[in-house]
Amino acid sequence: MANSTVTIAVEDGTLPAQWYPPKLPDAPTLVVCQEIFGVTDYIRRRCQDLNDLGYGVLAPEFYWRVADDGPVPEITETGEDALQQAMALAGRLDFTAATSDGVAAVEWAQDSAPAVGLIGFCFGGGLAFAIAAQTDPAVLVSYYGSALPSLFDLAPQVTAPSLHHFGEVDSFIDADAQAAIREAVSAHGAVWQSHPGADHAFDNDAAGWFHPESSANAWQATIAFLATHLPVGGND
Questions:
Q1: In the chain, at which end, N or C, are there fewer CB atoms within 10 A of the end residue's CB?
Q2: May I ask the CATH class of domain 4-229?
Q3: CA 65 to CA 213: how far, in whole Å?
Q4: Where in the numbering of this chain does the Dienelactone hydrolase domain appear (predicted)?
């Protein structure tokens, strides 16, 4: 089925989201949390990849809050000053409000799906972690969550089976920061996967940090983790 835009009521407005319905009505749903660039073509491709596995997929457009009455922003990763533009956008977004939006998205998905999981990339990796602390999803997969160093206090509240991916040469989250994150999340049962030679955002095939080998390895591990903790066919 083709994806469509749905709207989700939140306390102070309406959250738009891209919805990829599952082929089977009783399939679980994954809520995908965007990178710092927005719900870009890369994020939409990953949503389609997950949908092709049988999941319903919901991608909230968190930047609606900084849209200034225009289209929800998204930035082409290869554009001039793309990272600076994205960081400026993220800097304008209230993280607490975005977390509340994510909670609403999970609750929307729970209305029709038997189980709901979270997966986030970059900015969305930390955001998904914060949302998981408030919603108790069936599973959490976080790719190089950039906000995680400021979210350690939430670790005891994230009780879902969790998988964290990090590149070993991440330009934004160095080895010491990664060690601290790993200690905090592993204390509560999270699985950690390091990727040699990979920088930040190594999964994004539209960005300069793309590392094909790490991307492929991480994706296979993600698929296996989801199949174990949020199987499309249930527990039969």
A1: C
A2: alpha beta
A3: 35
A4: 19-229
